[in-house]
């Protein structure tokens, strides 16, 4: 099964970005989403950002990953924790 994980774009240089996933930074190619900007959330798969998503969608995806046990709850970025709490009834 392939999985794309939401990541926040922290810095951009040319077609490469530094993205943050649950507080862990890594490099990602923006070749497939040249419209991505610092502060945007992207879906990251195999080192490539494959789609720009809004913050609410990123928070919902991370919440679902937490429920499935794919990510540790304490690893949730604080900026998404606030958005996640808005999604709960």
Please tell me about this protein's structure.
It is built from two helices and five strands; from the N terminus they run βββββαα. It is α+β, with helices and mostly antiparallel strands. It has a single domain, classed as SH3 type barrels (Roll), CATH 2.30.30. Strands 3-2-1-4-5 form a five-stranded antiparallel sheet, covered by helices on one side. Helix 1 crosses helix 2. The model is unreliable at 82-89 (pLDDT under 50).
List keywords for this structure.
89 residues, alpha+beta, SH3 type barrels, 5-stranded antiparallel sheet, 2 helices, 36% strand, disordered C terminus
Short description:
The chain is α+β, with helices and mostly antiparallel strands and 89 residues long. The protein contains 2 helices and 5 strands.
